[in-house]
Amino acid sequence: MSSDSSILQPLVDLLKSASAAAAYEAIGKCGDLDPAIAALVPDVLCVGPAFTVRAHPHYSAGVSAALDQAPAGSVVVIDVGGDPDTCVLGGTGALVALRRQLAGYVTNGRIRDLAALRAQRFPVFARGATVRSSRKEGPADFQVPVAVGGQVIRPGDLVCADDDGVVVVAQERFGTLAERLAARLAFEQRADASVQAGVSYAEATSRRP
């Protein structure tokens, strides 16, 4: 994870002005997670560097510990291994995450207390909800590469997620992200203005960056 906030924070701020789809386009139509990992709290934008957790199916002790260790602004990315029905978070955990100013959760598992999370407006991207709980003991690995939604996510990669899905920007793309994302956002603004002015859709979108 890059420790240089002078590099990282401007990228986070730029992504917060964009969307997951714009990020996907800007980095070359890549980095998108399996659409099965979707927004469970609507109308939220989740952006931040990944704090990764490799847990074990049906054991959430490591996930609980991650809430106390992940830096403010992080997106906690949790790989629960081979059982996608593992529950990783509930309403109390989301309260802790909000208090510690975490940016959100992305997991290939499930969550519960969905109504509470929606009331709290805490960004969660998962395979769905469950009534099940998980065991609180058991080990987990922090800040290691994880495999979630068909992508390898490393500590410090940038996550951008919204109602459309989850996109991960690998660190090797940070150097060109600002320029390419700015160009993509400018194109989208021009295309919208052209359509509002009566230009055909084909013409308005013909000059993609």
Textual characterization of the structure:
- The protein has 209 residues and is an alpha/beta fold.
- The strands form three sheets. Strands 1, 2, 3, 5, 7, 8, 11 and 12 form an eight-stranded mixed sheet that branches. A two-stranded parallel sheet has the order 4-6. It has a two-stranded antiparallel sheet with strand order 9-10.
- The protein contains seven helices and twelve strands.
- The protein has helices at residues 5-16, 20-26, 61-69, 91-99, 114-120, 174-196, 201-204, and strands at 38-39, 46-54, 75-79, 87-89, 104-107, 110-111, 124-126, 141-142, 146-148, 151-153, 158-162, 165-169.
Describe the SSE topology.
Blueprint (H helix, E strand, L loop, with lengths): L4 H12 L3 H7 L11 E2 L6 E9 L6 H9 L5 E5 L7 E3 L1 H9 L4 E4 L2 E2 L2 H7 L3 E3 L14 E2 L3 E3 L2 E3 L4 E5 L2 E5 L4 H23 L4 H4 L5
Parallel strand pairs: 2-3, 3-5, 4-6, 5-7
Antiparallel strand pairs: 1-7, 2-8, 2-11, 9-10, 11-12
